[in-house]
Amino acid sequence: MKKYLAIMTGIIILTLTACTTAQDPASPVMETVSVEALLASLSLEEKVGQMLQPERSAISLREIRNYNIGSILNAGGSHPDDDPLSTFNDWHAMTREMQEAALSSSSKIPLLYGIDAVHGNNNVYGATIFPHNINLGMIQDLEVIEAVARATALEMTALNMHLNFSPSVAIAHNIRWGRTYESMGQTSEIVSSRMQAYLRGAQGIIVPTVKHYVGDGATDQGIDQGNASISEEALRAVHLIPYIDAIAMNVPVIMVSYHSIEGVKMHGNQYYLNDVLKEELGFEGILLSDYNAINQLEGDFKAQLITAINAGVDMLMQPFNWKEAIELIIIAVNDGDISMDRIDDAVRRILTVKVNHGLFENSVHPLNESIMYSEAHHQIAFEAASQSMVLLKDELNKPLDELGTLFLTGPGSDHVGLMAGGWTTEWQGNESPRIGVGRSIKEVLEENHTLASRWQDADTVIVVFAERSYSEWFGDTPNPSLLEGLAHPDNRAALNIARFAKAQGKNVIGLLISGRPLILGDALDHFDQFVAMFLPGSEGGEAVISLLNHDIPFTGKLSFYWPMTTSGLDYNAIQNQHLFPIGYGLSSNPQD
Ligand code: BGC
Asked: DSSP class of residue 400?
């Protein structure tokens, strides 16, 4: 344990000194650029350009310059020249050119390059892939989360990216939801404490976003972008809490959710956006819409824009129809449908975030390839992965070395892509076994063990189950279980091997790679030891083997209730009937 603390302190000092743009978000606005003077100098066209966030592939350098674009979206799975294997140099060159285009516009205002670096700078092939948020929820040492956020931010700035659409502060109350793994847990205490750690690590290096406002994890049956039948009282008591805590930390950006509350889409909900978030809670940052989300509002595009902007949206993530949006907003202002005050308020917020972040002084950084998947970041990813795995059952309490000949099987046993999950290189995840970083469980295990080629010849059988990779609504399922829903089709054969091996008196260890706790039926009966790995990222293989070796102790605790049946998945039901409660997690070697 002490050795670990020394390593972590070293890492934190190292990453702090490596940080180049540090601005304390709580410190007064930098005086080098006056927001008010700048705002007063802008034409309506220049102001509206600041409010748009087109997708990188849908805008040219000339258009960035001519339209005074305020921000660029790098969508999940969008890469320079549409090449998923783009080099760090390709990324850096692309973002630099875009920034230079913005700086040569009539307003000369630098742009915010936004990306979903939700578990490391995960769109970039070769970046460190940290565990997903669900894993961060299981970690007890919050300094590790801070280190993850800091390292992610450094792998962004190395490539001139400043705006992260992370952390999600969703409180996933139904694991049928495909975005469960983007949620850090099922209580506001767990989510807020981890979000605070995340913001401590990220702020000052990049501009973080908390999302998706508010109650995205509360939809009925966990349907992505669905409707939440929830009272205001319940929403305030649980789902609003992380936002209150984020505003207390001066969070610069909040992203609005796609879903509806009692039938009203959040993007048009003036009460929650303007009255609650901005006026009551005092949020002074940028309220960002989600990808094409305003197109889900009623009316034609112009009406949708008017509704969203008047409800409080400041920046519009309209990846493709951004040009039309600019034209329509200008018409709406000229017609009096959107007031100039509302435009000024939105642009003031955008400029203030840019000034506070030091973007006017520091918008292009030298390419720092050595920080990408550096030894220090690899070590942080390892710590985070190992501290986030939860030991659910242990009747062995022996390290691997004492378990004789090993046999390894199952869809997750030789697969880094499945350990990384959604939002890895591609939006839906990278389903290849090798993703350029990290090692599979098999690769790590083979370093010190000669594996049996048939389970019949082994003393101990290790079975690695997996869920397929997915993101957003692709991950919704009515039946989130070990063998159904998004479960890997090979789980069934793997479970059969476990059953036979157990019946023959062998030691059987189960490892589960999944974006949520899965209904296990009676599967645990066939295992002597069972570990929930969730989505541990590139270093998951090294981490789980170190834990099974007893080189380090299990410390992860569940931040979700572990379900028993499909009938008991909604939050009210699961609190009363579950396999394991929140907070559960065994320790393999208590002497540590
Ligand atoms: C997601 C957001 C994400 C955005 C940009 C949307 O579909 O809901 O979480 O930040 O895309 O990639």
From this structure: G
